[in-house]
Amino acid sequence: MSVDRDGGLPQNPRSGRPLEPGATFGRYVVVRAIGSGGMATVYEATHVDLYKRVALKVLHAWLAMRLDVVQRFVLEARAASRFSHPHVVGISDIGSLDGVPFMAMDLLEGEQLAEVVDRDGPLPPDRLADLLLPVLSAVAAAHDAGVLHRDIKPDNIFLARQPRRGVRPMLLDFGISKFAAGGVDTGAPAQPLTAAGEVLGTPPYMSPEQVRNGMASFDARSDQYALGVVLYECSTGRLPFDDFPSINALMEAIARGGAPPPSSLRPELPAAFDAAVARAMSREPEQRFPSVIELGRALLPLAGPRARAHWAEEFSELDAPRSERRAPPVVLAPAALRALPLFSAVPDAEIAALPLLAPAHRFAAGAALFDQGAAGTSCFLLVSGDIELHRTHGAETWEVALAGPGATLGLPALWDDAPRPVSAVARTAGIAIEIRRSALPQLGLRCPTLADHLHEEAASAAVRRLRLAGERVAEVLDKPGADPGRDALVRLAAAIGEWNVPLPPRKR
Amino acid sequence: MALDPETLGRAPAFAALPEDARRALALCFRGRRYAAGEVVFREGEPASSLFFLADGELVVSARGPGGAPRQLLRIGSGQLVGESALIDPTPRRATLTAARPSWVYEIGDDSIDILHRNAPAAARALTGAAIGGLARRLRQLEQRVERDLERMSALP
Prior knowledge:
The complex is a heterodimer of chains A (about 500) and B (about 160). By secondary structure, chain A is of the alpha+beta class. Helices cover about 35% and strands about 20% of the residues of chain A. Chain A starts with about 25 loop residues before the first strand and ends in an 11-residue tail after the last helix. With about 160 residues, chain B is α+β, with helices and mostly antiparallel strands. The longest helix of chain B has about 35 residues. In chain B, α3 crosses α5 and α4 crosses α5. The chains are: A alpha+beta (about 500), B alpha+beta (about 160).
C-alpha cells in the first residue's frame, strides 16, 4: 500500500476522532460521515484533483494495529477489484495514511434491502426476483473469478437510487471474502485468510456446513445457501430459523435443517418459489443448485417482464461459455503475454494489472468458448491453443477458420449486442484471456495502452471488413444471374460477423 | 447551447463514463436547434462527425432502387446517429431530417485526438461508439447474406 500524503495537512486519523466535514485526508476532502460499522467509518468525500465524489472507507484507528484486520481490509478491495460487474461497487483507490488503511469506492445513494423489508414488509416474489437477479449475477461473476463473498445478507445488498431509472441493486462488502492466493493456478487449494475452524459471517445466514465445520468447508454453495436465506427472509419477513434463545441453539437448528416452506407463512407465494428456496437452502451442499446461475434460472420466470427480458441471456441454458469460465483463473508470466503482438508495447504495470480485469482461463480440447447464436458480451485473446470457428446453417456445419495464439475472437461483441456469428470450439487445450464489455472502462483506466491497442485493432478491423464485405456482398448478391453457391455464402456470412474469419476468395 | 454532461450520459455508449470524462466530452459537442423538416445531413455528403439527439425526433431516410426516398428508422432523444463516420469517412449513406423541433449536437473526428490527450477515457468511448456503429452495419450485411442463404435453401 502506498502512503499518500500530498493532499495538504491531513487530520491525524490515529487520534481515532471521526473526520469533520472539510477535513483533508490524503487527496480527499471529507464532505460528511455516512455511517460507521465494526471495522470502519464511511465518509462521503471528494478527490481534490478529479473533483470526483467517492465513498471513502477508513479503517478504525484502533484496528489499524491488527495485522489480520488490515489484511482483511485490503482483501476486500482486492476481492472486489478482481472482477468487474455492474452490480458490484467499484473500488477506485486504496492506500494508507499514517498507517490507517482506506479505500475509495463508488458513491451510492439509496438504502439497504434490509431497510426496505423492515419498512415495506415482505416483498412480492416478482419484485424480489427483479431485485435479486442482478445480485445473483454479481455472485456468479465473483464465483467465476474465484471469489467467495461469505457474508451475503440483506444488509449487504444496497439498492442504489438512479435518476429516472429506479434502483440498481449492488452487492457490497467483500470484507470476509476469500480467493485463491494470488490467483495462481497451482492446483493447491485456495488459502483462506481466516484460520481453519474460525467462525466468521452472520449467524442466521450461515450454511449448515459452515456451522458444522467452520469456514474451512465454505464454498460457492455456501454463498448460495445465504442467498436462499435472503429470499426466504425478504419474501416472508421472517428468518427461516427464528426465535432461538441463543446463538448455539440457532446454529443447531441450522445444522438440522428443515425450515418450513416460505408459503407456510405467506400462502400466496408460488410453489416454484418454495421449490427454489428449498433447493438453495438444502442441508447438504450437493443437493443445492449446481451454481447460483441455476438458482437464477429458477427465479427468472417469477420476475417482472422487463427483468425477465434483461436477464434472459445471463440465466439462459444456452450460455455454454459460462460453464467453461468456471475453471479457476490462471496467472500468466509476463513473457507469455509479451510474445503476443497485442502486448508487445504494453508496459509491465499494465500486464500486472490485467488479471484483475480480464482473467485468463484454461480450456480443454473440445470445449466451446462461445456458441453461434448466443448473445456475447466478451472477447477472447488466445494465448495458446488452437480454436476452430464453425458456422452452422441448417443441418450442416462448416469450419470457416482456425485461430491460433495471438488471435482475438469475438471482438465485435465488445461494442455490439449481436448473436455470435460463429461457434468457437477448442481443437487443442489452451489458455484464453477473456475481456468483458463491462470491464472496458476499468481497462481504460488501468491498462490504457492495451485498451488503446484494442480499440485501434477493432476500429481498423471493422473499417477494413466493412469495405471488403460490402464489395464482396455486392459481387455475389447484386450481380444478375450470379450463383455464388451455398458454401461461399456461409463463409461470407461468417466472415462478415466474426472479424477474425478470412473472407472467402473472390470468384473469377 | 452547451451540452449537459448528464444528458449525454443517456447514450448507452457514454453512460459508464466517469463524470470528468463525460464533462470533457460534452464540451467538444456543438449544438444547434433544427426546425421540423430541416435536414441535418444528406445522403452522399462527406461524413466525419457523429450526432447526438438531446431532445426531439429525427428521421433517417435513403433513396430506394427507384430513387424514391424510403424512411428507414426514427431516432429518439438520447440516441447517437452516424457514429461510424468518426473512423470510416465514407459519404453519408442516408439523409437525416428533423421530424419535429430538435436539439442536435455534433462532434467531429478531430475531437478524438484532442480528447485522447486530455480525457483518454472519453476518446475511447467515442471510438467505441464508432466501432459499435460499424459492427451494426456489418451485422446488417451478415443478415442480408443469411437471408439469401435461406432463400437458396428453400429452393427445390
